[in-house]
Amino acid sequence: MISYIVRRLLLAIPVLFGVVTLVFLSLRLMPGDPALIMAGEAAPQEVVERIRQQLGLDRPIIVQYGIYMARLFQGDLGESVRTRRTVSREIGVRFPATLELASASMVIAIVFGLFAGLVSATRQYSLVDYGTMVGALLGISIPVFWFGLMAMWVFSVQLGWFPVGGRGTLRHLVLPAITLGAMSTGMIARMTRSSMLEVMRQDYVRTARAKGLKESVVNVRHAMRNALIPVITVAGLQFGMLLGGSVLTETVFTWPGVGRLMIDSINNRDYPVVQGAVLLIALVFTAVNLLVDITYSVVDPRIRYD
Fold first, then answer.
1. Mean model confidence pLDDT for the chain
2. Is domain 99-299 annotated with CATH 2.160.10.10?
3. For the whole model, what pTM was predicted?
């Protein structure tokens, strides 16, 4: 297992290198001048040129890239063009909020998704099955921003149960977590149902029933565990996406996370912050994928990484 983890980490290096390079070049090709944004539209040209020189934007792209990579290998992500604070600090302040929101959303998705998928599979072609799958399809299909706005209008504006936005208490977390977790809940529910139906047709499940075991024991202990492999894959990918920055949800609910930071930084052409945030997302996906592969061997002892 240790050698497998080391190999995966080594393979992640060229992936991260490619992501950093692609983002660096893409941002430089975007229209807009960070120096002009900082100086203001009415600023004299010499002021804009001085700021551009201070930021190093007057140098060729290959030189800028070389300087950025040299600093990156030293653990220096640079400074924010807008706030002049280090990128590590900017992201470090926002990431706990995104981690909190993503974790709460994932808990909701796993609990309700597994329960809905299990109930739906054990009652195939019943009204419960149809109703559960329609609900899961709605969760996947409804746009996040629309669902968030409707939830805010009903539960915050009309009923006054939860705050409209912001972060601070558990009540602030409820609506964003439900909104963000709706799509993941639907995907996990559908995957759980499909995987359970496939496993429940296997011979060892029929044997367990023939031995006289209770149906609940057969479904949970024998079928559910063997049906978890594809569910773990979906849940891991969803969690990586949530940690990477839930842009729409954080924007709708003014949640101070990495997703909202990226939007603000893109609008202000804050190259270092955008590059640092994308690098964080790539690292998160790499770590989550590795964790998912390790979880496979825990859930199914037959899986070994030699």
1. 81
2. no
3. 0.79
